[in-house]
Structure prediction request, 492 residues.
Amino acid sequence: MLEACFLGHQGWLLSSASTRVLVDPLLTDRFGHGGGVGVVHPPRRIDLSAFPPVDAVILSHEHDDHFDVPSIHRLDRRIPIHLSSRASNASRALLRDMGFTVHPLRPNATLAVGDLRYRSFVADHVRGPVEDEWGVFPFLLYDTGGHGSVLSAIDVEPRDDGLAQLGRLAPPGLWCYANNTTDSRFQDALRGPSAAPPTDDTPLLARVVARRHAQIEQAWGHPLATLVGGAGWAFEGDRAWINHHAFPIDPNRLCEALARACPSASFTAPVPGETFVQHEGRLLAERPRAPFIAVPPRSQWPTRTHDPTVPVRDHAPVLSGRAFGEAQLQTLIDELGDFARYLYGGAVFRALQSLTEDDLHGRRCALAIALRRADGPPYVLRYEPEACGFTRQPSTDAIEEFASGLECWGADLLGLMRGELGVSALCFAGRMRVWNHAPRRLRWSPHDLWMFGHPLRRPAAATQLYRVLRAQLPESTERVRFSGSAPVGRPD
Prediction:
């Protein structure tokens, strides 16, 4: 028997009769490093005292929706952790400092944990660029008794040669698809209130997923069920309005569209605690709740109905109460030298070299950063490619005067540069605005800062951030227990 218990977002507890493996667990109710993004959605409470003991934990990559430091803190230190070999040295150092034994999880390898096998594959970063998911390896988990299997590409696309191996490894089982479609257009400072009804992209995504389903079916056979997860967070409090902008494709509606496109297949958007049981190659049951997970009624969930007509509100700082004056500004200008070097030769840099005054209708041909502060007008910095840096510029309205740029709180950007704040909390959590007056020729987006902030790009900042996050952890907490009953082998 093979059981797959959904924990939320893309986390799973995968169990046979004698072995349990945790994959990308989020064990608290917060989402993003230090809870900087929001809360886990659907909401749930996990009772760690009732959580079954596990034999191994697999962390697929270093993004904070998979590598969550407060959740990792809630693991018995004896549990071996298998982390992507392409994660940063900073992440491995953190785990070792926390007292864990860390094993590299490599592509095209099979990890044996008791009677479970975790087979990893190589992602295709050439044919299907997947931004900065460098550490992700699609995987197939199966049991040696032939009862079932779980297939997931996590956040990437598998290579064709990886799909071709599936049928030789295990019979068709569960296919996990991550619906990570999100919309950050609400952060566009030039976007006025929308009077048009929301555009439904669900049929378009359903066609994409249906094609992938057909590929998997051809290579592997008919999946017993397709489980749609991902986008497992919501905004709360004074940022709850973002829920109506950020999540354009509801997972249940996607499953309905997929059922129409593939009438012979089964599609489900699981709720945390829902468990899928396979036995001798058949899907026996779907248990509605695991005993260690409590989920409130749907009427108590945050509303995420997509409605871009909901008014966009002002954004408050993440690091509220931080001073940001002349001294902090100069420190930030020095720190931004690294960001200026990162921009050299990239899309924004090339666009700036390709513009004319006629393209901009009198606006300054430059990328600007408007830095808000509590006790005065924003400081404005201009990217100077000739100096490979940012310089202070006089401006009364940067959004109107400069061709492109971003606006955020100065203390937040300084915190990001210093490694005191996770990049997801600034870029995709409603904490900034961007603008582009000539978007077809010069386009800046939060993604540019997101790529810059990856731990493989800024290892020292990542090390500092992990120190900050570790210092915030409670000294004592309930923890997932270590089983120790299943032998863990070396990946072959």
